[in-house]
């Protein structure tokens, strides 16, 4: 009986490995297809990088200003510069996670799914700024841990750079940085002097906070958006149709009130397949937390490596809750849900990999740890936490990039993606076989 059970387990693990390889192959195919299809100058992906300071200081304008100046000085190809920088950034982030996961004993199995590194490919936001921000966040955290006098200055400069690229970095970076510096400084004062340590922590991050408030204030208007778009009029792009974009450049003029109202209108009113958006998200978000907090169950050997599972899952669960709280405002004020989930998950695991466990244990508030234990207990009671259940839910998780749409959501499901890939291969082979048979008959 033991031999029989071992054989079943062996076959299951091989099945998971085959699924994993097919999934990775399909993701690579989707990436090639997307890059071959290209990105329009007027679309969201490219225009996010074109925002500049030609109409005055405005949020998200640093990348566009640099690109415009490089074009004016050296006549670089702006389109391919954006594409290549984003691809290199994605590869660097993937290498960081693969190496970190192997070293920490985490399962690389979870990396390609839509809620993690697969998201930018599946939902086509690889050519956006989120990956660049994640790389800068890694550097910010590393410098925040150093004990040299210049380290906080460099950490601030890197965080300011990230905020000038896109202000979302401030949402998930500031809380953990305040906690890191609070832990550092409280040893300088007598026991219980958390107020002094807290004030000193905030003072350390004051330059970054000031820049964050500045980009929130100088969000731009329609006139600034027009000036930005006009500054790119003479710059050639590989794909363009000449229209005025209602996209990332125009979006800088949108007020917080307008976007929040639109977001909640979709959450509360929009239906797809008879399901209201907010109900769907109340299932999707806990499912992601459930899988990641139980990732120690996913000890499948992949590509000759079996994760050691030497990490602390309770600490990871607490960190997931903490980082979700930091990005939750983004879910309330804008509908780029795919990117917000990416920011939540990626920032969580960056912190988990960069900070030593003793530091994490010291900085995570006790009430967050208590909340994570209760949430995990409830979800594990509801679904169980066996390896098979966790793996199944992981493979079934899917969600929309933008507003709630059931049919689009299904296309982000890893099982559907693999089945589409198999169907494509079968159709291709059938087509070739048909041509071969017809040639024989003729």
Q: What are the main properties of this structure?
A:
442 residues, mainly alpha, two-stranded antiparallel ribbon
Question: How would you describe the overall organization of this protein?
Answer:
The chain is built from 21 helices and two strands. Helix 15 packs antiparallel against helix 16 (337-354) and helix 15 (313-333) packs across helix 18. The N and C termini lie far apart (57 Å). The radius of gyration is 24 Å and the shape is globular. By secondary structure, the chain is an all-alpha fold. The protein has helices at residues 2-37, 44-50, 62-74, 78-104, 119-122, 130-145, 151-165, 168-185, 194-204, 206-217, 222-231, 248-251, 256-269, 277-293, 313-333, 337-354, 357-363, 366-383, 387-396, 406-411, 414-441; strands at 271-272, 275-276. Mean pLDDT is 90; it is low at 1-8. Among the domains are: 129-217, no CATH class; 280-398, no CATH class.
The helix/strand series, from N terminus to C terminus, equals HHHHHHHHHHHHHEEHHHHHHHH
Number of strands: 2
pLDDT < 50 runs, ≥5 residues: 1-8
Radius of gyration: 24 Å
- Beta fraction: under 5%
Q: Helix/strand-derived class?
A: mainly alpha
Q: Share of helix among residues?
A: over 70%
Tell me, briefly, the overall form. globular
Please report the distance between the alpha carbons of the first and last residues. Answer: 57 Å
Q: Helix and strand layout, with pairings?
A:
Blueprint: H1 2-37, H2 44-50, H3 62-74, H4 78-104, H5 119-122, H6 130-145, H7 151-165, H8 168-185, H9 194-204, H10 206-217, H11 222-231, H12 248-251, H13 256-269, E1 271-272, E2 275-276, H14 277-293, H15 313-333, H16 337-354, H17 357-363, H18 366-383, H19 387-396, H20 406-411, H21 414-441
Antiparallel strand pairs: 1-2
Helix pairs in contact: 1-21, 4-6, 6-7, 6-8, 6-16, 7-10, 8-9, 8-15, 14-19, 15-16, 15-18
